[in-house]
Amino acid sequence: MTALLYILLAIVVAVAIWQVTSILNFKSVIATEKDNNTQGILFAVFGVFFYGLMIFSFVKYSIILLPDSASVEGESYDTLYMVTMVLILVVQAITQFLLFYFAFKYRGIKDRKALFYADSHKLELIWTVVPAVVLAGLVLYGLSVWVDVMDPSDAENPLIVEVYAKQFSWEARYAGEDNELGLANVRNIKGINTMGVDMSDKNALDDIPVRELRLPKGRKVIFKFRSQDVLHSAYMPHFRAQMNCVPGMVTQFAFTPSLTTEEMRLNDKTIAKVDGINKIRAEKGEDTYEFDYLLLCNKICGSSHYNMQMKIIVEEEEDFNAWIKNQKTMAQVVQ
Ligand SMILES: [Cu+2]
């Protein structure tokens, strides 16, 4: 495949050089009736090909899109995304069609003269005002969704979790019984205290450090992100969540998980996706894959960036509570 791409690239470069040199050799060339016809028809053919390719891509590659949102907030994000995409698609379909159609329709024909049309204030007003109003509407709608998603202040008893990024892994810390994270600083990192938790802070003692993120379904989770070294980006695609992890500061994102891992595994789109992946894996002789939510790094942060991930398990609240009760607190781990 790579060899084929290189060959194609070499051909394209060769054609480009040939075209450029032949332009330099031009003296004066007048397009004939036949040239104009050929170019016009080629435009029409390319237009049809272009739409065909677009429809083909929709049908063939929709499967690689993410399955349904696994968080409540993700649903409004998805609606915003859909509205934007449908608008873009409609405008794109009309304008591209007109572009190709006019290039074909008004190709050079002997004795046909172009109409000299200087300007029309009415037309210019329409094509300026309509996009401005539509775009302003989209921006306002986007802002209101953003404000809704980013403001967790109305949540009742949210779960507070710290997500800690470093080259090249993730760690997490639950706020424990008091639901308040203890202070932390990179200077406190020592031995088993890998997140630099300040053990002199009384809020830190009941914090629970983990290497696998578990979240309760239906309870708002407020994530506090920190980074030990460089910029990372905490990306939880199934929940439609992403936030930069910046050294020296705490960033935040919140969402309410709405589908447990088990429920997501039974989702039609997930099943179709997993089947597709397993077909490829079977051909390569690899193990079968089972769906799991993931926290990924979405900022190119170094050589092993691609492998910086942590499994997320969403479960019913009582299962989560039973699990967290059995985890060791910072006081138990460090002392
Ligand atoms: Cu990273």
UniProtKB/TrEMBL annotation:
<feature type="domain" description="Cytochrome oxidase subunit II transmembrane region profile">
    <location>
        <begin position="58"/>
        <end position="153"/>
    </location>
</feature>
<dbReference type="GO" id="GO:0016020">
    <property type="term" value="C:membrane"/>
</dbReference>
<dbReference type="InterPro" id="IPR036257">
    <property type="entry name" value="Cyt_c_oxidase_su2_TM_sf"/>
</dbReference>
<dbReference type="InterPro" id="IPR008972">
    <property type="entry name" value="Cupredoxin"/>
</dbReference>
<keyword id="KW-1133">Transmembrane helix</keyword>
<dbReference type="InterPro" id="IPR045187">
    <property type="entry name" value="CcO_II"/>
</dbReference>
<protein>
    <recommendedName>
        <fullName>cytochrome-c oxidase</fullName>
        <ecNumber>7.1.1.9</ecNumber>
    </recommendedName>
</protein>
<keyword id="KW-0812">Transmembrane</keyword>
<keyword id="KW-0679">Respiratory chain</keyword>
<feature type="domain" description="Cytochrome oxidase subunit II copper A binding">
    <location>
        <begin position="156"/>
        <end position="326"/>
    </location>
</feature>
<feature type="transmembrane region" description="Helical">
    <location>
        <begin position="79"/>
        <end position="104"/>
    </location>
</feature>
<comment type="similarity">
    <text>Belongs to the cytochrome c oxidase subunit 2 family.</text>
</comment>
<dbReference type="GO" id="GO:0042773">
    <property type="term" value="P:ATP synthesis coupled electron transport"/>
</dbReference>
<dbReference type="InterPro" id="IPR011759">
    <property type="entry name" value="Cyt_c_oxidase_su2_TM_dom"/>
</dbReference>
<keyword id="KW-0249">Electron transport</keyword>
<dbReference type="InterPro" id="IPR002429">
    <property type="entry name" value="CcO_II-like_C"/>
</dbReference>
<feature type="transmembrane region" description="Helical">
    <location>
        <begin position="6"/>
        <end position="26"/>
    </location>
</feature>
<dbReference type="Pfam" id="PF02790">
    <property type="entry name" value="COX2_TM"/>
</dbReference>
<keyword id="KW-0813">Transport</keyword>
<dbReference type="GO" id="GO:0005507">
    <property type="term" value="F:copper ion binding"/>
</dbReference>
<feature type="transmembrane region" description="Helical">
    <location>
        <begin position="38"/>
        <end position="59"/>
    </location>
</feature>
<keyword id="KW-1278">Translocase</keyword>
<feature type="transmembrane region" description="Helical">
    <location>
        <begin position="125"/>
        <end position="147"/>
    </location>
</feature>
<dbReference type="GO" id="GO:0004129">
    <property type="term" value="F:cytochrome-c oxidase activity"/>
</dbReference>
<keyword id="KW-0472">Membrane</keyword>
